[in-house]
Amino acid sequence: MIEVRHLYKTFGSVQALSDISFSVKPGVITGLLGPNACGKTTLIKSLLGLVVPTRGQILFDGKDIAGSYGYREEIGYMPQNPDFPSNLSPRELFALLRAVKRDSGLRQDECVELFGLGPFMKRALGGLSVGTRQKVSAVAALMFNPRILILDEPTAGLDPLAAATFKALVVSLAKNDTTVIFVSHVILELERVVEQILFLLDGKLHFANSVTELRRIMGKESLEESILELVKAETAVPMHGK
Amino acid sequence: MANRGAVVKFEFFNVLRSRWLLVYFIALAASTIGLARIVDDPRKTQLALLNVVGVLCPLVSVLFAVTYWYSSERFTELMLSQPVSRGMLFWSRLLALSGSLTLCSLLGILLPGLFCGLLDGAMIWLLAATGFLSVISSMIGALIAVYVQDRMRGIGLALGLWFYAELLHDGIALTALISLRDYPLDLAVGIWSALNPVCLTRVAMLLRLDAPLLLGHSGALVRNLAQSDTGLYYAAAAAMVWLAVPVCLASRHFRRRDL
Prior knowledge:
The structure holds two protein chains of two kinds. By secondary structure, chain A is α/β, with parallel strands linked by helices. Chain A is built from eight helices and ten strands. The mean pLDDT of chain A is 86. Chain B has helices at 4-16, 19-38, 42-71, 73-80, 86-115, 121-147, 151-179, 186-193, 197-208, 216-227, 229-256. In chain B, helix 5 runs antiparallel to helix 6. Chain B is globular and about 60 Å long. The mean pLDDT of chain B is 85.
């Protein structure tokens, strides 16, 4: 379980995150939404320890992650724009990740086959298309059967078939108690997958509750309309668990 | 816990696969062979090689290190999303970069040096100087890339530092010597020369090669100091500071910075 308590982050004079508190339970797919530069990536990077919070706590299974890195053993991460050493092949990349994690990566072959990466396994990553590199990034995130999956715009650049395959895999992992945080600008895409919404605006968490609750509060049928209403609303709606 | 060996091995071979390192190796080897063919006297060849190494090694090492750190930025994020500590990644990359650059520059001089019959005591000193300059420059490159987030500014700063080490430092010394010629400046110039690792290396090497006429303005004044035991300890201490300070600062900042 992930728990964030009163998280703040400032970059110089810019307040990127302000008093963020929420929790994500195992087996729940949570959509992290918000306009550009609202702090989504900063929040994700804080969870991964790539950004050091100014104040606040992040707990994984009740333990504070500050200064530690062992907890990342359990995480699969798909960055927004994956960039690998250009002369490395997917096969070498996966071998490196297996060696680093001391894990055999049981799902590697299955994921490689699902995304049709077989013919590209020995080719240099620098020569692959953006979409193919995104598939490589997906395999790297999924091959270890992670307990926590953090996905930053994971379907950007993927063809519709690969995107559908990816989402089906994510849903199946969540059914096996994997915690998923899914960042996307495509609300329609999230509507079919996520159960909980975290909505950020100007570095503040304006909504943290289930999709059903969001629809009920906003009185709209679709998630997209509900989000639009949420943006228009001047005051924050009640937070999850309060 | 992450496999430290896997990270070090990957970084090392990833650096070694760079085509630019091969170009660097060929350039050094061609310079060594060319100079050995043109100049008959091995001692003069070594002196000429010292000048090539003094210019080429810091330039290539600092630029290669800076660009490698910048181009690995996104991959650094991916690696640090694995159970890898920042310290482990930093030291792995630093060792890989300085090790590969040093290996490449040493082989680029040693192999053709052996072939051309240049290997003697002075050549060993030249190789040591080459290694020292490669290690220091790659560490300074790491320091720049870790502190300066803007790639263009970082590369500009690296070039600026190289320009300072090659020309500006001696130019300032010359200007000071002319302007303040009535004052005793030995100690001041000794301290000043310690502010440039290229100058330190050149002085140490030229004293070993017994060619003080080529010391340059600051080097000539520091000769007396450097020939004494105190001077040698002083030069060694300055070299240690040049090795330790960039690494400590870069490591400290890398552990704390936001990616």
